[in-house]
Write a structure and sequence with these properties.
With 366 residues, the chain is α/β, with parallel strands linked by helices. It has helices at 56-66, 87-92, 108-119, 122-126, 231-240, 264-269, 275-278, 311-317, and strands at 10-18, 43-46, 73-76, 95-96, 102-103, 129-131, 135-140, 145-152, 155-156, 164-165, 208-211, 244-247, 255-261, 301-306, 319-323, 337-342, 356-365. The strands form three sheets. Strands 1, 2, 3, 6, 7, 8, 11, 12, 13, 14, 15, 16 and 17 form a 13-stranded mixed sheet that branches. A two-stranded antiparallel sheet has the order 4-5. A two-stranded parallel sheet has the order 9-10.
């Protein structure tokens, strides 16, 4: 009797990655890479900054063009510009008036409620859109593939915007694993209580990390030459070692890197081998850390490899295509490697000039 073939243990799955669309709407006639139709995918991930300053009407417009994607699942998180989705920020600060003085907008509670209701609306549900806050969720796909994702809209305080935390605060790691921070204590900009963090578990519990802000030193360098990513997020990333880490926030950091993780125990005893990269940013230049720093945030990283991009080809095809499956010839080694992508669509002038990212991953079965 012939034994039936064993089903593969993993299922190739295509992800479409984008972030920082800031009210921009793609059209079929656009001359930029951000155009319709969107590249085909199974799962779409949007890493926040959906709008310029929130607004239910802008969220509804976003849902309409996201609905044109053929992805069966579309996961969306907020960013620091989506102020009415951060209830504490919206109630505590409001929107600054043109004269620069704080003013409370009439109907703040109504705006918060309307912003939330958009993401649970029939239109969003029918489009396959799932709005997530901070925490861990597991999803199953029609193919039989499954994945676990950690999401967070938060980033270190940045110019007084929403979803912020003090840079010295470690909200991504359990307190038992927290080390002393190189950053001095800071006074909260908004004088508001920060929400309780949701640390994510270590490898192999998480397949994907989706945050608005970048981890420290990975596609986080501003036009002023400062690395503004979170060292604690990098530490958490080295614990979780997901297949994929997606973020945005720093528009000029657009791009991707393949991170190879080292032996954490050996690295903790002697991290001298890490000197070749620990003081370099995404462009190979010397880091300028916001708030100082002593390099401890780079623990665990053995090697970083920028993903080569043919910008002309990406413009023509409407995306940067990265195949991390066996078929691609160089499959990702889960637990040893993580691909990190800054998927910001707009540049510093808020022009939608950056191509989307299309990444093929092998996921486990349900």
């Amino acid at each position: 009797m012939t034994t039936p073939p064993t089903a593969p243990s993993t299922i190739p799955t295509r992800f479409l990655l984008l972030s920082d669309t800031h009210n921009r709407i793609p059209t079929p006639t656009s001359t930029t890479p951000f155009r319709l139709p969107l590249p085909s995918s199974t799962v779409l991930l949007h890493a926040g900054d959906l709008t310029m300053t929130g607004g239910a009407e802008h969220y509804r417009a976003l849902i309409r063009w996201l609905a044109t994607s053929d992805a069966e699942l579309k996961i969306v998180i907020a960013g620091n510009h989506d102020v009415d989705l951060d209830e504490g920020w919206e109630r505590g600060k409001g929107i600054e008036g043109k004269d620069g003085e704080r003013e409370r907008k009439e109907g703040v509670e109504r705006e918060i409620r309307e912003a939330r209701e958009v993401w649970t609306s029939e239109e969003a549900v029918e489009a396959g859109i799932v709005y997530l806050e901070e925490g861990v969720r597991e999803f199953g796909l029609r193919s039989g593939a499954r994945f676990t994702i950690y999401t967070s809209p938060y980033q270190p305080e940045y110019c007084g915007w929403a979803f912020a935390y003090n840079r010295h605060t470690d909200r991504f790691n359990p307190s038992s694993s927290s080390s002393s921070s190189p950053f001095p204590p800071q006074t909260p900009i908004l004088l508001l209580p920060f929400p309780t963090p949701e640390p994510h578990p270590p490898h192999p519990a998480i397949d994907i990390i989706l945050t608005h802000g970048p981890p420290y030193s990975i596609r986080d360098r501003t036009s002023r030459g400062e690395n503004v990513g979170c060292e604690h997020l990098l530490k958490a990333l080295s614990r979780a070692r997901p297949r994929l880490c997606v973020f945005g926030h720093i528009h000029e950091g657009w791009g991707g890197e393949r991170i190879v993780w080292g032996d954490q125990d050996n690295h903790n005893r002697d991290h001298s081998h890490n000197h070749s990269h620990k003081n370099q940013n995404q462009d190979g230049e010397e880091d300028k850390r916001v708030g100082g720093g002593n390099g401890e945030g780079d623990k665990g990283v053995a090697k970083r490899e920028p993903i080569e991009i043919d910008k002309r080809k990406a413009r023509e095809e409407g995306g940067v295509f990265v195949d991390l499956t066996t078929k691609g010839g160089r499959p990702l080694e889960w637990g040893k490697e993580t691909v990190c992508v800054n998927a910001a669509v707009v540049d510093l002038r808020y022009r939608p000039v950056h191509p989307l990212w299309v990444v093929d991953l092998e996921l486990g079965r349900r």
